[in-house]
Each structure stands twice: as C-alpha cells, then as structure tokens.
Write a structure and sequence with these properties.
alpha/beta; 9 helices; five-stranded parallel beta sheet; two-stranded antiparallel sheet; Rossmann fold
Amino acid sequence: MSEVTNIVVSGKSGAGKQPRIDVLVKEFNLEQLSTGDIFRNYLGKYNDYNYEGNLEDFWDEKNKKFISDDLIAEKLGTNNKDIILGLKAKYFVEKGLFVPDYITNALFEAFFSKKNYRKQVLDGYPRTPEQSKFLLKLIEKNNSKIDFIVLVDNSDERIISRTIKRRICPKCGKVYHLEYKPPENGLCKCGTEVVQRSDDTEEKIRSRLNEFQLKALPALNYLRDQDIPIVTVPGHLEEFTEENVRNSVINEIKKLNL
C-alpha cells in the first residue's frame, strides 16, 4: 500500500472505533486527531487563563453571534487565538448547547494546521455535512487529501448492551466492563469505587445513536459522493484479539488497491 496522508474514522458511539484507530495509527505511521481532545485542549487553555468575567459580555444577542475578535481580545485582555477559541467553545458547552459547525470547524482547523494537515486519523470529525464540506475545502487549499474513510459497524442493540455495562474510575479514568473486564469487588486497581458514566444510560445511548443517523451518516455520504472511498469494518468480533482486529481492518483496506 502506498503512503497514506489522512484517514477519517467514523461509527456509532460505542461501535468499537478505538481498537481500529490503534491499528491505523500503527500500520500507517499516523497520529490520532480526536475532536474530543481538541475541545479539551482549547477549553483547558481558556480555563487556565482564569478569566473571571461574564461570558455573556462576548455574545451579541441581537445578531445571535459573537462580537468581533478584536473586541473579544480587548475585553478579555489577550489576543491569544487559542484562548479566544476556547472562550467561544466554553460559551456553548457551559450552556449545554450543541457547538455550532463554524466554531467546531475553527477549532479543528487551528489544531489540524499545527499538524500541517497531514498524517492524521480524524476521529469524530466531520460529524455533519457542513463539516464535511469545510474539511474538503481545507485539504484542497493546503494541498492535502483524505485517502479513505473507515466506518466501524456495529448493531444498536449490541452497542446498548455493551455500553450500559461500562464502568469508569472517577479518580484515574480507567475503564472497566461488568462482563468483559469486571472490576474486582467493584473497585478500580487504584482502590476507588467505579461508577457508571452519566451518559451511559440506555436513553442517552439511543439519543447518540439517533444523532449518528441524522448527522454523521449524511456527513460520510457527502464525502463518499466526492469520490472518497469508504471501507466498512466490523466493530464486533466473535474472538476479540489484537491480531483479529488488525486483520479485519487491513483486509478491507487492501481491497482499495491503494
């Protein structure tokens, strides 16, 4: 297979993307660029700035948009672009609102540019058709490309069954599973009692699955319609081993004849 520039990985929440991403990172000498990590990075930079004012001061309610970046910098006391981007993300996250595409796109572009728009496995982006359009314009402008898309497939019922049994250590973040990787006596190895994540209830899992059908799938279809090939790999294997996961991914990619 020829050298790969960038890969998009998508799939329903809980489908089993991470083990497949690990394969791609290793096989093609890439890095994982996760939307979740991007948000945490910029939110962290804003939080570390310790601004104590009201975020509403930066929002133009009449026109339903932020005031200009120059005014934000003046009020904020810094023209650091990363901190300003973090502020914009924080505004929506703090309200529990969906972060608009134009904010997500700006955060993604800022981070992707630091990687020279190359050698990345894009995880969690694009999630909407508008993000797909932005991504294609971005890579064209920077003489880069998306080689192919890996779609990790799994059934809704299997995802629900598996995810509601997931447990996490609130102290160190280690993840357990009541069936596949149970904590001993309900305790993490660090001695902390494991808990169920608040968004791992059946109702919230089904909401995320519905979100995938409504937004993420059309985003992938848009890329496919622009002649970016999609390979589908199974998110469930009867025998889960590193070698089986690798083979299930690489065998499908080989069919592309890259």
